Amino acid sequence: MSEATLHPLAGKPVPRSALTNIPRLMTAYFTLQPDPAIPTQKVAFGTSGHRGSAFASAFNEWHILAITQAVCLYRQHAGITGPLFIGMDSHALSEAALASAIEVLAANGVVTMVDEHLGYTPTPVISHAILTYNRGRTEGLADGIVISPSHNPPDDGGFKYNPTNGGPADVDVTSWIGKAANEFLAAKLAGVKRLPFARARKEACIRSYDYITPYVADLDRVIDMDAIRAAGVKIGIDPLGGAAVRYWQPMIERYKLDATVVNDIVDPTFSFMTADWDGKIRMDCSSPYAMAPLIALADKFDIAFANDTDADRHGIVTPSGGLMNPNQFLAASIAYLCTHRPDWKASSAFGKTAVSSGMIDRVVAKMGRKLVEVPVGFKWFSAGLIDGSLAFGGEESAGASFLRRDGEVWTTDKDGLIMGLLAAEITAVTGSDPNQLYQSVTADLGKSYYARIDAPATTEQKAILGKLDPSKISADELAGEKVTARLTRAPGNDASIGGIKVVAENGWFAARPSGTEEVYKIYAESFLSADHLAQIQADARAVVAKVFEGG
Q: Which residues are catalytic?
């Protein structure tokens, strides 16, 4: 949340006058042409691909044509010859971007697996499809494209490439693709191959694919669906109008669950959403304001959950505590999985990002397992999930995935569907909801006071923060305690965290530049009190201000 005042509409329905004008948005997609000389209009891959609004000339037809041609060239460069699995979420721009991508993929002769109904496909389903296809193969491997800006507002679009490991592409891959795409933009698309959409759809390389059945049929290999059914857990599900909307009913029917989809509306304006903290519409399942309608239903179910628009994130609503803090659910999930997955290797570690709660560290240590701390971005977990050295990877932003029950890889991208189902399994097996489990597991580990806030920063300041030398951090104390570590690289893999993390005995903060806004993010946690947390946040702002002054 920003330090700005809470918007009067937070948690309330948005007036129709404030909804996105979808016809105008689509007109902008097809008519506005980006200027690659303007940084905000270039192709730029952040931690989750290229994102932006068509209104701002940041996500337009030219971007998608250029990126898709660059992906085709990268596949040739990397020797990737298998099929490409492609999926989109329910943002309006995703529909247009899917058509643009298919036009280029068909012209390049790439075997492309498209949902058989041109429907929506969750991010984890694409990862699952890639890994399922590649299992046992050493050549002719598959990769994928996910078209989604995640939980971002309705006028945003997003485009992400997943290579043959099924997870988000690493920096070297996205840099290669981004450079090639921007060269196509500078050349006004010269060199981009393209067929008209109607013809492209008929090309032999563009193939219809049933994404739902294989994923749903495989779920009992990662979740104890029998336990959920046998316990009669009453489940409430809200897809928030996103890509998971067609997946829940087949799942409910196959596994005979006592589950209700409380909202199956798909609307590109997302008019059914309540406004987020700043009055904007976001399908953010970790926001109490966006989740207000499901929270209101908490006492009607044993467990309820929602997913964001591409279903890679989860929001867990319990009768005992309402919407769970994402860090708390990650900690509860780890505690449960450590004791209810007997076929997992004892040597498999549990992964968290550098900005996730220190309570996760304490829970993992209590369970006698190894912790691996990495930078923000789920791509850092992919290799470990594939080889089994990681059993679980989670981010403070409510994204996680974990191994199958037999210890094999499930997905290498975040999976909000299995996290919701895990909440139901926890409820079924333990007789406690995940909030109650968290309270009992952490009763002897102290109390966490955790928050994330945003503070203003210029483009130049964000660049300074993102490439900081730890020797430039002069702070010896943090909220009255001796600083024990100043980090610009993650201890789990020595990769840059793209910012700083300062640690003391009973608290820490991390500061990172935003990839999409003129702000930097301060993550902070205290194990003493809310006042101590506020002091850490104040010290964090002072440390970052000195960094900016020093240039």
A: 150
